[in-house]
Design a protein that fits this description.
It is a single chain. The protein has 12 helices and 12 strands. It is an alpha+beta fold. It folds into 2 domains: 197 residues, Jelly Rolls (Sandwich), CATH 2.60.120.10; 110 residues, Arc Repressor Mutant, subunit A. Helix 4 runs antiparallel to helix 5 and helix 7 packs across helix 8. The protein starts with a strand and ends with a helix.
Length: 315
């Protein structure tokens, strides 16, 4: 799905009102401050790629603020912003960064932040569902308000694939879109995890190393219905008690995290496969031993039954 918004044609005094609505509809509720409201100009193009939204935004100088009262009213998302024309100043979690063209930042919708640029700017913005990124990376908040290089290494692969997705979006079948969105998210996750600064920030290197080993083991064995905390701890050479301590700072237990990973994997599987694969088979493939239990958990997490999701992508 493609959408395009522009202030061109609207009365100058109404440009800022129109842009406030455009930003809210495309991302989430943000409070905008316009240095020159009467002469403001902006263009925004948006593409939906599976569960991921990609947009290209061009505008005059602007300040965006996410306030605390708005943070819990909407579904959780993360934004990745890549400026092309001028610097972005960004603050969140008591951290501040100046993001230059050729780099990118990560923003969390559930926490207040301030985002501004003092000159006209053009930028790419990737909007990811919170559960999609959280199920791939433990505690993504630790990566917010940090500048990541999009001109070399894995970051460049992420940036180049983003451009590739946009160029070929019209030729890709609807069933391929979720795969493209998932691959884009995987490249983002690889970029974040490759950055060594996080290992030496709030958490000790030892703790981060244990968490990474746990995550890798769980993802390799996600289809095993007998994947328990005891087995994970034994395989990673740590005690079960220490394993639970590693997860204590998050809002989930180990078992809850595994269940959410399985549900997300099943969701992605349903989006990219046809009706030839039975829902029960998909449930069992991702470690659920009871189909009814899987369907109930799936609806509770995503708001619709697995069969209903499949019908959406079959249209």
């Amino acid at each position: 799905m493609y959408q395009r918004y522009t202030t061109n044609g609207a009365p100058g005094r109404l440009h800022h009102q129109y842009w406030q609505e455009v930003i809210g509809n495309t991302y989430f509720n943000l409070r905008l401050r316009f240095p020159q409201a009467d002469s403001f100009e902006g263009v925004l193009e948006s593409w939906q790629v599976g569960a991921v939204s990609i947009s290209r935004l061009q505008s005059n100088a602007l300040c965006y603020e996410r306030l605390r009262p708005d943070c819990q009213k909407e579904e959780e998302h993360f934004l990745v912003t890549i400026p092309e024309q001028s610097d972005i100043e960004f603050s969140q979690f008591t951290r501040s960064v100046v993001c230059q063209p050729g780099s990118f930042i990560l923003e969390h919708s559930n926490e207040p932040y301030r985002f501004q640029y003092s000159k006209a700017n053009t930028m790419w913005v990737v909007k990811l569902p919170g559960n999609m990124l959280c199920n791939r990376i433990r505690n993504p908040d630790r990566f917010c308000a940090m500048q990541f290089d999009a001109s070399s290494g894995v970051g460049m692969l992420f940036h180049d694939y983003l451009q590739l997705v946009i160029r070929h979006r019209e030729h890709a079948a609807m069933s391929i879109a979720p795969v493209m969105g998932q691959q884009l998210m995987e490249l983002l996750a690889a970029t974040l995890e490759a950055d060594t600064r996080v290992l030496h920030s709030n958490n000790s290197a030892v703790r981060c190393a244990h968490l990474k080993r746990v995550e890798e083991f769980v993802r390799r064995n996600l289809s095993d219905p007998d994947l328990t905390p005891d087995r994970i701890a034994q395989s990673c050479a740590i005690s079960t008690r220490y394993l639970h301590l590693l997860f204590k700072e998050t809002d989930q237990t180990v078992s809850q995290w595994i269940r959410d990973l399985r549900l997300q994997a099943a969701h992605e599987h349903l989006c990219r496969t046809t009706g030839n694969t039975q829902i029960g088979q998909i449930a069992y493939q991702w470690g659920f031993s009871d189909q009814a239990q899987f369907c109930n958990a799936f609806k509770q997490k995503f708001g619709l039954k697995p069969s209903e999701l499949r019908k959406q992508y079959a249209r």
